[in-house]
Amino acid sequence: MNFEKKLKEKPIQVSVPCRVDLGGTLDISTFYLPLMSLSPSTFNIALDLRTRVTLSSWQKGVVKVSSKGFETAVFKKDEAPFHHPMGLMFAVAKYFDANGVHIHIESTSPPRSALGGSSAAAVAIVSAFYHLMDKKIDPSQMAWIAHYIEAGVAGVPCGMQDQLAAAFGGVNQWIWKMGRTGPLFRQKKIFEYDVDIETFNSHILVAYCGIPHVSRDINKQWVDSFLQGETRQVFEKIVDLTKEFSLRVKVRNYRQAADLMNQETKLRLEMTPDVLDNTGKILFESAIDCNCGTRFTGAGGGGCLWALGEIEAIDLLKRKWQNILAKVEGAGILETKIDNKGIIIH
Question: What is the DSSP string of 225-244?
Fold first, then answer.
């Protein structure tokens, strides 16, 4: 479909949040289906480091994608390679058979920071096309479409917690299930009210380690070891830890939640030591010293870490992390808060 003329009249802008998480990987069907009897779930927090997508008019028969940190790409609508660094975005455009469109992506999070930015961008693009075609935007549908497109072109098993955080916002536990005809999720809000979320902001901290991550390598190790039967008991423990962590956060027992968080991180480190780089390991140890919990975001291997604890402990940890990160080029504490909104049409 040629959107050139329609976008000349009015470009479309949509933004969505990114996320930090615990219990990731369990949102991949490779894991949650064999573990179904344990009711696996993933915890995540949407952050106001939003990804904004603009659809504007471009040459007929052509799709252009541009994003900070990546080389701008222009392809004829049927010739865009999905293995391109921005192949996911071209795949979303192809889902709508789009041409005559420029997809411009702006993210306020660092590139490849393991905050789910590419999946968030896909949700924003799907939502933008739906708005362009005057179709109803249902957050669940936007997340599912973005998820299945990504899973189809990634070449590796993909979860969908990134898409759900982008579509819904807030602080949630996502419970993975199988329905009569396909996979389902159940949203369990950790905090219902804005005032509770505002208070929770004082209990968390997010840092960028200065090194971009490549999730495919570590994710593949987790998938392979699980399929081979080597780590299934470990992931059963992670299921229990994630459920208990979500409960402790909900009842505001941050000290116990921090301990559960560290247990989960240690299990991941035992399976894949590279899940934390050298800076990440130093940050992790300093968090333990401050009675805080810490976990890498996404599949780790660079990117971001986030911490949780009592307010006094987080304040102390923030000063320690600032001193550590000051010695690493490009690293630092991210100025961010919880975003209780998902998809926003601007």
Answer: HHHTTSSHHHHHHHHHHHHH
130 and 213 both lie in a single domain = no
Whether residues 203 and 172 fall in one domain: no
Number of domains comprising the chain? 2
Whole-angstrom distance, CA of residue 206 vs CA of residue 303: 11
pLDDT band at 99 (very low <50, low <70, confident <90, very high): very high
Same domain (yes/no): 79, 153: yes
Chain mean pLDDT for the chain: 95
**Strands, E, within the chain: which ranges?**
12-22, 41-57, 62-67, 73-76, 101-107, 171-178, 183-189, 204-208, 293-296, 304-308, 332-333, 344-345
User: What would the pLDDT profile of 107-118 be if each residue is shown by its tens digit?
Assistant: 988 877 889 999
**∠ at Cα 231 (226, 236), nearest 5°?**
100
Q: Which two tokens stand for residue 213?
A: 């991550």
The predicted-structure confidence for 67-80, as pLDDT tens digits, reads as follows 988 899 999 989 99
